[in-house]
Automatic annotation (TrEMBL):
It comes from the Bacteria. InterPro entries: RNaseH-like_sf. This is Transposase IS4-like domain-containing protein.
Length: 117
């Protein structure tokens, strides 16, 4: 398997500290391992957001192309919701979702007929 390094990190929490153990097979220094871990963790958080709030896990297709398009649409939905939250910071997540859906529906109803003409 090769070399396996373990890095122990104490993370500050509201009520003290939390011990985390990071394992790595990378041939890199501590800073590089931490940067890779942080990038991976950010990706995990986005993936969880897409699965839990935007229906990424609800795609029942087995076709790679369809799954890829479903993921594209989920990411586009996230982008539209974030735009709504930037325009109106006081909106709840659910209201921002609703507003983004109405905006997209309106765009689709006005753009598609123009394209078919």
């Amino acid at each position: 398997m090769g070399r396996l390094d373990m890095l122990l990190i104490w993370l500050p929490q509201p009520a003290g500290f939390k011990l985390m153990a990071l394992f790595s097979t990378l041939d890199a220094g501590i800073q590089e391992v931490l940067a890779a871990w942080k990038a991976r963790w950010d990706l995990e958080r986005v993936h969880r957001l897409l699965k839990q709030n935007l229906g990424l896990s609800k795609c029942l297709s087995r076709s790679y192309a369809t799954q890829l398009k479903h993921a594209d649409l989920a990411i586009e939905a996230l982008h539209l919701i974030r735009q709504q939250k930037q325009l109106h910071p006081d909106l709840s997540w659910r209201t921002a979702q609703h507003n983004a859906a109405k905006t997209l529906k309106s765009q689709l109803l006005t753009v598609l007929p123009a394209l078919s003409a």
